[in-house]
UniProtKB/TrEMBL annotation:
Species of provenance: Acidovorax carolinensis
Entry keywords, A to Z: Cell membrane, Membrane, Transmembrane, Transmembrane helix
Protein name (record): Branched-chain amino acid ABC transporter permease
Pfam families: BPD_transp_2
UniProt xrefs under InterPro entries: ABC_transp_permease, LivM-like
Membrane spanning residue stretches: 27-45, 51-70, 77-95, 101-123, 130-149, 181-200, 230-250, 270-293, 323-344
Record carries keyword Cell membrane: yes
C-alpha cells in the first residue's frame, strides 16, 4: 500500500515526462543519495571504501557507458577495456604535460580522447553487426595494448610502461583520503547518470533503440544509421573513458596497460548482461553483483565450509569463487535473461497493485 500512486495527478506534460513521476520514487532516491553522501562516509571503514565502494562506483559508471552502446543501441562491443585505457592515458598525458591543469578538465579531456578512439573503431558498425562487430571492437583492445606498451610517448617515456599520479585536487581540496575519493567518484557518477537518463529518454535515445530493434526499419522511417550508431559509440566511449581515468587516477594511483586488459572488457559486458540491457539501473545492479559477490564469497566461503568440518585453502577459495560466480551468471541468464533490473521493475509493478491480484 505504501507504493500506490492514488491521488497523484499530473496536470502538465512536464510532470508526466518527469524522470521519477511517482512521489515515492523521488523520496526514495533523495534518501538513497543522502545515505550515500552523508551516512556512508561517517560509518564506512577505509577497507570498505578502497575494496568495495570506490570500485563499485567507478565500475557502475563504466557499465553505464557500455549499456548505452550495447543495451540501448544494440552494438555488441568487446573493446570497453581499450576505451578505459585510452581515457586513463589520455587524461594522464594532459595532466602531466599541461602544468596546473585541474583534475576535472583532465578527466573530461581523457573522455574526449576515448570518444575519438571509439568513433574510429565504431566505423565497422556501419557495415557489420553481431559477432563480426564484436570481433572488430575486440581489435581495439589488442591495438590499445600494443600502443601503450610500445609507444613510449604515451607513458611519458617510462621503460616499464607504468605511470603514476599524485597531489590530486578538486577546487583546491585534496583528493587523498579514501572518503574524499569516494565522494568525488560518487558525485561524477550521479551527474553522468542523470545526464544519461535524460539522453536516452529523448530523441537521440529513441533513435538508438530503433536501430537496436531493427536498423532497416529505422532507416526507412528517416533515422540515419550512421549518425545513430556513431553517436552511441561516441557517448559510450566518453563515459567509459572517464571511468577509466577515474579508475587509474583515483582508485589505482599507479598503473600499467595490463590494468585494462581484455578481462576488464568481459567483466563490463557481464555487468550489463546481468544488470539488465537497456536500463540505467541495470548498470548499478550489475556492478554491485560483479564487485561485491567475489569479496563476499572470499570472506564467508571458508567459514561456511568450515561448519561441515571441511578446510579449504586460499587457492581452493579462488577456484570455488570462479565456479560459483560462473554458475550464478548462467543461472541469471536462464531464469531472467533481461537482468536484475527487470526483476526490480516487476517488483515495483506488483507493489503498485498490491494487495490486488489484477
Amino acid at each position: 500500500m505504501l507504493y500506490r500512486e492514488n491521488g497523484q495527478f499530473k496536470t502538465s506534460y512536464r510532470a508526466d515526462q518527469a524522470i521519477f513521476p511517482i512521489a515515492q520514487d523521488r523520496i526514495a532516491i533523495a534518501l538513497m543519495l543522502a545515505v550515500a553522501f552523508v551516512v556512508v562516509p561517517m560509518l564506512a571503514s577505509d577497507y570498505i571504501f578502497r575494496a568495495i565502494l570506490i570500485p563499485f562506483v567507478i565500475m557502475a559508471l563504466a557499465a553505464l557507458g557500455v549499456n548505452i552502446l550495447v543495451g540501448y543501441c544494440g552494438q555488441i562491443s568487446l573493446g570497453s577495456g581499450a576505451f578505459m585505457a585510452v581515457g586513463a592515458y589520455g587524461a594522464y598525458n594532459f595532466f602531466v604535460r599541461i602544468p596546473g591543469l585541474p583534475l576535472i578538465p583532465a578527466l573530461i579531456l581523457g573522455g574526449l580522447c576515448a570518444t575519438f578512439f571509439g568513433i574510429l573503431f565504431g566505423l565497422p558498425s556501419l557495415r557489420v553487426k553481431g559477432l563480426y562487430l564484436a570481433v572488430a571492437t575486440l581489435a581495439a583492445q589488442f591495438f590499445s595494448d600494443w600502443m601503450f606498451l610500445r609507444i613510449k610517448w604515451f607513458t611519458n617515456n617510462s621503460d616499464s610502461g607504468s605511470v603514476s599520479v599524485n597531489n590530486l585536487q578538486v577546487f583546491g581540496m585534496p583528493i587523498e583520503s579514501a572518503t574524499s575519493k569516494y565522494i568525488f567518484c560518487l558525485a561524477v557518477l550521479v551527474v553522468v547518470a542523470l545526464l544519461a537518463k535524460n539522453l536516452v529518454r529523448g530523441s537521440v535515445g529513441r533513435e538508438w533503440m530503433a536501430i537496436r530493434d531493427m536498423d532497416v526499419a529505422a532507416a526507412v522511417i528517416g533515422i540515419r544509421p550512421m549518425y545513430a550508431k556513431l553517436s552511441a559509440f561516441a557517448v559510450s566511449s566518453f563515459i567509459i573513458g572517464m571511468a577509466g581515468a577515474l579508475w587509474a587516477f583515483v582508485h589505482l594511483g599507479a598503473w600499467e596497460p595490463a590494468a585494462f586488459s581484455v578481462e576488464v572488457s568481459f567483466r563490463l559486458l557481464f555487468m550489463v548482461i546481468i544488470g539488465g540491457l537497456g536500463s540505467i539501473m541495470g548498470g548499478f545492479f550489475g556492478a554491485a553483483f560483479i564487485v561485491v559477490l567475489p569479496i563476499v564469497l572470499n570472506q564467508f566461503l571458508p567459514a561456511l565450509v568450515g561448519m561441515f568440518g571441511i578446510e579449504i585453502s586460499t587457492a581452493g577459495v579462488s577456484h570455488a569463487e570462479l565456479m560459483i560466480f560462473g554458475s550464478l551468471i548462467v543461472w541469471f541468464l536462464i531464469v531472467e535473461p533481461h537482468g536484475l533490473a527487470k526483476l526490480w521493475s516487476t517488483a515495483k509493478q506488483k507493489l503498485r497493485l498490491w494487495p490486488f491480484p489484477h
